[in-house]
Amino acid sequence: MVLTITYTGENTRDIGYLLHKNPYRPQFVDLNYGKAYVFYPEVSDERTTIALVLDIDPIDLARGKVGQTGGGLFDYVNDRPYVSSSFMSTAISKVFGTAMTGRGDDKQALADSALDLSATIVMLKSDTMMLNRVFEPLGYCVTYESFVSDEKFPSWGGGKYVNLTIKGNVRLADLLKHIYVLIPVFDRRKHYWIGSEEVDKLIRNSEKWLPNHPEKEYIAGRYLNRSRSLTNKALEQLKTDEEIETEQNDESDIDNISEKRPNLNRQRLRGVMEVVKTCGARSVIDMGCGEGNLLSLLVKESAIMRIGAVDVSCTALSRASSKIRFERMSDTQKAKINIFQGSLTYRDRRFEGYDAACVVEVIEHLDLPRLDAFERVLFEYARPRYVVLTTPNKEYNEKYPNLAEDSMRHGDHRFEWTRGEFKEWANKVAEKFGYSARLSEIGEIDEQLGAPTQMGVFTLCE
Ligand code: SAH
After folding, report:
1. pLDDT band at residue 53 using 50, 70 and 90 as cut-offs
2. What is the distance between the alpha carbons of residues 233 and 195, in angstroms, rounded to a whole number?
3. For the whole model, what pTM was predicted?
4. Minimal-distance CA residue to ligand 1 atom 21
5. How far is the CA of 310 from the centre of ligand 1 (A)?
């Protein structure tokens, strides 16, 4: 049983940090059904591959020490030690458990980024059509190598096993979760008992990507060994997620953002939308739009005739577009929205011509030395009449009990500012580019520390 994961790009050895496995130190891990070997068959700047090889003891299997016994001859002559099956998934969670959580420590930005990754799963038993239908909606390019059952007996036809390779631009943690859940989907003889814990495991590892998957029923059903009651239970939870999302979309009419579930995110969006509406902007660009939280409010405002949404991350953009159900919009609605990939630190004509630009919780993701470039791109070249910008107030971090001293609120934050630092920056930018700056606070205000979020509204001086 072999799984390999290959990272191509620059400094690809860094994948070792994300996998928490040193490229120069092969390891083995004892599992209760055999051994897992972890090593890197290739390591270079441009291309690094890690392999996970499982060595299962067929005698233990035959004695029924692990897994299900089929009885009779099957216990002695079977594919179990060789095919990628539920054993592989269990090994993945043991060996790459930390990587699956998305924790990247010093390389958090890399862990949070979509990378050019491919994975090869050797000997997966499957109907090939289903491989395409299961992996392609997740954004993978799917290829497989198949084999004839026996060259001496061509009449026996093709075998049922393939070596599957999936390739995509994904976060490593997501790739691992996809494989972890989807290998057992193709294994009808799982070695563990399928009970309600498996439902929880499925939800935990797939709640971000399964609800909208066109083969959701197939995946949940097979993962749960076609147990109807468990599958229904899982689908119910996956559906609930969708319903919550729809609910949020409905609620995204700003007037309905009630005190029902006040959270910082909502308060921030409400604050930004109030400014946008009060200044009477007819065209707005959401810079660093992320998954489209603000965008889903902007599209509901009939006074706004033109909307731009830009982000550097393709994954974020596709989430933003499905959040506002872009594909289902009328042509007129579509025509007024432009969702595109771009970077806020490079001059871009597509940023020009908007009345207002919103930059919500984005600047702290930029490397400090690139902040000058961002300032020029926005205030000098795009030059909207209004800029609404928010960023965390570092002083308030003291109030977060789980945040270690001196650490930031998000792994990808490059800096966080005190109120003094933000004020200094805002005034400097305003003066340099001919804007006036007005600062305010969002969220619960602590007398000493201020509020969790700080907002700057910049108005172009005539
Ligand atoms: N404004 C959104 C997202 C905030 S998270 C919200 O409030 O929900 C920060 C976002 O900035 C991420 O989506 C990230 O991809 C984006 N980002 C980081 N650096 C960027 C850059 N140089 N150009 C454009 N977007 C960037």
Report:
1. very high
2. 11
3. 0.51
4. 343
5. 8
